[in-house]
Amino acid sequence: KGFSSTFTGERRPKGDRIFEALGATDELSSAIGLAGEFSSEKGHTFVGQLHKVQCMLQDVGSNLATPLSSAREAHRKRTSFSEKPVLELEQWIDSYSEQLPPLRAFILPSGGRSSAALHFSRAVCRRAERCVVPLVQAGEADPNVAKYLNRLSDYLFVLARYAAMKEGKEEKIYIKPEP
Known about the structure:
The chain has one domain (about 10-70, about 80-165): Up-down Bundle (Hypothetical Protein Ta1238, Chain: A). Helix content is about 65%, strand content about 5%. The chain has 6 helices and 2 strands. The protein has helices at about 15-40, 45-65, 75-80, 85-95, 115-135, 145-165, and strands at about 5, 10-15.
């Protein structure tokens, strides 16, 4: 009938922004899964990190499915989201960034299948973040969830560049068209 339940048992319309955020997060996990499969075929060592990210996205979903306005303390405790995964992403970003040449121009999503799939995942991540931010601003979700998605998009960007470099694939550079 167009309604679904949150983890707290509250019934909300399927078009509610909580379900929009949950759907975007699920789509992000699927996109990362695809990127992980392409990356695994190329023997990339970061595939385990992508799997860990997918697991963290399940925790993101649990937090989103537990609106703070209707959550009891037991719900909040079970679905809280700490800053620790955010800090881990930042360490990963720093580790890969140190190995990359500096950016001198805008790059287009490219650099082979692994890289392109990671760029696609980054774009989906940014949409998920845009869905989550209003929930955080309304006090319905933990701010660390939005921080995680923000840092995750940066991680996916750096990882896409790293994958292209490791595979010896060229990143396509943005060239302004002639008027």
